[in-house]
Design goal:
The protein has 457 residues and is α+β, with helices and mostly antiparallel strands. It folds into two domains: 175 residues, Adenine-n6-DNA-methyltransferase TaqI, Chain A, domain 2 (Alpha-Beta Complex); 209 residues, Adenine-n6-DNA-methyltransferase TaqI, Chain A, domain 2, CATH 3.90.220.20. It has 14 helices and 20 strands.
Length: 457
Amino acid sequence: MAQISVIRKSQLEGAMRLDAEYYQPKYIQWTKHIEDIGYSELRAIGKIAYGTTPTGGVFEESGIPFIRSQNFTLLNVDVPSLAYCSDEFHRQNLKSVVKPADVLLAAVGATIGQVAIAPWDVGEANINQNIARVHITSNDFLPAYVVVFLSTYWGQFQIKRLVTGNAQQYLNSHQIGQLKIPKLPLERQAELERFFLEVSRKLNDSESLYLQAKQLLLDEIGFKDLDLGHQVYWTVPFKKTQEANRLDAEHFRPKYERLIQYIQRLPYLRLRDVTQTIRNGKTPAAEDYSMEGVPILKVGGLRNTGAIEECCAYVPASWAQANTKGAVKQFDALVLCAAHLPSYIGKTGLLMEDLGPLARAVGELIILRFNNKVCPEFVCVYLNLGPVRLAVQRLTRGNTAHLYPDDLSTLPIPLLPSEFQQRIADLVTQSWEARQKARQLLEEAKNKVENLIEGRA
């Protein structure tokens, strides 16, 4: 049922906000509750800055870590998935330098409101223009508490209230500075920080278990004996170019030929032989995204632990029903088929949870649905091995390097014993369970904050 509310002209915030949504009674009531508790505005306890993206969106293979909102995971930063910027770019953008324990807030687009804390084990980093960095300067607020609070109901309602923009929502530095952070006793904040550190440990455990699975598979295939060195020049018979239907020299590098031959020394099938379907997802138009609804998996959801993180965007159910091409279900693998850096192409994640019948994936991801000839976890780890990623990237086409389902379907998949595949699957499952434990601990931390604010603790 529609609600009507009236607000006095004297209560309007000048010409800054005249939209009715901003003055919803619930927002006014909740804001007053925080004010009654006692608070500090974010601009009073920290320094706020935005970043920028290197010219042309071109990143480096190494250098200064460069953080984007797609790297946020469970209020942390997924370090292995970071891109890099040059030292020169970093020096030119010192205003947006990120240091350990800085608060990071996605301030533009579909991920607006997502937060994370800069990792303790990474030195200086930088950020793009879609992220606001807050360096906490007050001794009365611990960064971990600020991050947890902003992720709670009480932080998110403020963010939702302050966002502006129609085609693309955003928060500017003035709006971010207005966010009200309740003053909690430092001993309470320290309890939350300990929770946060345990979350980080669980995420490290998850990554360690996945690395064990990768190393086990690398050793079994024996890639360490493979020579992938470069050659200055090479020749290819014209017949080979006809068979491959390509003329680009990169595709025929001798190291790729040696790589494929090395894989094929084992019993193998093509990827098309171990899957039911191989197809691209479907990307919604910008206006089709919503704050809630049906989950749609984006590139930023792929984690270096081979898992697909909890949904990072939503679309209306009506859009999902009209776009069945991108349908995904539990134990589907998603392969990145387009990226700024060709070396990112081929990154693969496995959907370990059931997101419902209307869950979808964007067009930059190729969806693999497996048959019963292989273990999905095993194939996912295999596709993420360094040498195999090279084999996948060899299949890309075009100046912008795009991977197509038909080309990916030709990739050889070694048929290792089922018992070995199950060992890999067990490690992947343990890695996923460690992430789930981290997620559970975060929910506990958020509940503690909400209870303290609501006077239930």
